[in-house]
Amino acid sequence: MRPLIAGNWKMNGRLPAAMKEFDRLLREAGRAAAKAKDAALPEILVCPPAVLLAPFRDAIAAADLGGVVALGGQDCHAAEAGAHTGDIAAEMLRDAGATHVIVGHSERRADHGEKNATVAAKLAAAHRAGLVPILCVGETLSQRDAGHAPTAVARQVRAALGAGCTAANTVIAYEPVWAIGTGRTPTPEDVAAMHLAIRRTVEKAVGAPRMRILYGGSVKPDNAATLLAVAGVNGALVGGASLLAKDFWGIAKAS
Ligand code: PEP
């Protein structure tokens, strides 16, 4: 299975600096694609703020890297249209060039009070629009300290996945909340155990044991090779280290 290396820019990236950095990434990707056969490259996905999707889509097209670098949204509303000021429909993300969308990121769960039911509705909306949702799940530090990490994460997975979720149309990102933006990571053994537990939950819930499961949380160029080599890890969701092309590409190369 080709690894998926996804960058979550969060609320970062102002024009024109964002465009310059994205162009740097396209140059790295273009050089690598020229050298390698497509199958040897990981899938590269960038999830910028929604206002940057269309200019990034145009830059990908201008560089003729459509099959090499893809774009995703960071969130979507469950509805297709309506009176939801400030929200963005999955269909709009698709119109702007996205093929994927992150749903249930812990920052959305914390900052916007998103519950599992809301995340499930967003995941279904992504499928309705023909996008691949990247479902983020992960335990808080107190859940982990209490020994509840596997049950908390299994609950999030079961609540969000529904009929129609397949290995081809859905991705999961295991992101321990305490590892996001902190520089702390679980041990490779802990990552392997959680990924195995998630895979079993996915298999029971929707019968898709080959669904991609990414690891996310303080992935950097210097720890990427170790984390990406863990059994059951099919790629990474990268926050801070996706903002500079050289770091993000360093992670992609480690896969
Ligand atoms: C994230 O927010 O999805 C994330 C993994 O962030 P970071 O890599 O900065 O920990």
TrEMBL record:
One of its GO terms (molecular function) is triose-phosphate isomerase activity. It comes from the Bacteria. Pathway: Carbohydrate biosynthesis; gluconeogenesis; Carbohydrate metabolism; erythritol degradation; Carbohydrate degradation; glycolysis; D-glyceraldehyde 3-phosphate from glycerone phosphate: step 1/1. It holds the Pfam family TIM. Its EC number is 5.3.1.1. Keywords: Cytoplasm, Gluconeogenesis, Glycolysis, Isomerase. InterPro entries: Aldolase_TIM, TIM_sf, TrioseP_Isoase_bac/euk, Triosephosphate_isomerase, Triosephosphate_isomerase_AS. The active site is at 105 (electrophile), 175 (proton acceptor). It is found in: Cytoplasm. Substrate binds at residues 8-10, 181, 218, 239-240. The keyword Protein biosynthesis does not apply. It catalyses: D-glyceraldehyde 3-phosphate = dihydroxyacetone phosphate; L-erythrulose 1-phosphate = D-erythrulose 4-phosphate. Involved in the gluconeogenesis. Catalyzes stereospecifically the conversion of dihydroxyacetone phosphate (DHAP) to D-glyceraldehyde-3-phosphate (G3P). Homodimer. Belongs to the triosephosphate isomerase family. This is Triosephosphate isomerase. It comes from Marinibaculum pumilum.
